[in-house]
Write a structure and sequence with these properties.
193 residues, mainly alpha, 2 domains, three-stranded mixed β-sheet, two-stranded antiparallel ribbon, 6 helices, 39% helix, elongated
């Protein structure tokens, strides 16, 4: 038979001439044993909380540690499952400096067909069709995205108070790419391909 916390605490008392089963001492031992039981139960719960895929009680602490919620993401109406998915994605994301990584990222954000173009300094061996760029352009690259219906333009039927073009719906991809790109580089976004 397994010992309970109250039995263990009673055995830890020093041997003296008082009754370890007296009402006052028994109440004190029961209160301490209840705290130990709660701590043991909490330890079992926290063991499961260490996995971000199923965390609930530690979700806020995980998000704070990993810089979530992301400034680039919509957080209104996020469920616990959405928050866990964002957390696991942040933890497991590997990142890259390769063009294929940014092309896949753009596709995941709803911009299929995106291509990355890396600028290189112009040399005398380049063709005349190549853009003339100085050595500083080796740190510049562009994401060329197919024309997106996300960009809305002023038309003859638009009210006079509307802007000539509204780019606000593409802010998420520019925010994400600028956060993930190498810090020493500059990325241009071309939505007119």
């Amino acid at each position: 038979m397994a010992s309970t916390h109250i039995d263990i605490l009673a055995r830890l008392l020093p041997p003296v001439a008082y009754d370890s089963r007296g009402p006052a001492l028994a109440a004190e031992l029961a209160a301490m044993a209840a705290l130990l039981d709660d701590g043991l139960d909490l330890g079992g719960v926290l063991d499961g909380e260490l996995d971000p895929r199923g965390t609930y009680a530690l979700l806020d602490e995980f998000e704070q540690t990993y810089g979530l919620p992301d400034a680039c993401a919509e957080v209104d109406g996020q469920t616990i499952a959405d928050r866990r998915l964002a957390l696991v994605t942040r933890i497991t994301a590997r990142g890259s400096q390769q063009p294929a990584y940014y092309e896949a990222l753009a596709e995941a954000l709803g911009y299929p067909g995106t291509r990355v173009y890396e600028y290189t300094p112009w040399t005398c061996t380049d063709t005349c069709a190549e853009p003339v760029a100085s050595a500083d352009w080796r740190f510049v690259w562009a994401m060329q995205m197919p024309q997106s219906e996300r960009v809305t333009y002023f038309t003859a039927g638009s009210p006079c108070i509307e802007p000539l073009a509204n780019w606000s719906s593409i802010e998420s991809i520019t925010c994400v790419v600028n956060r993930l790109k190498p810090a020493h580089t500059t990325c241009f976004f071309d939505f007119g391909v």
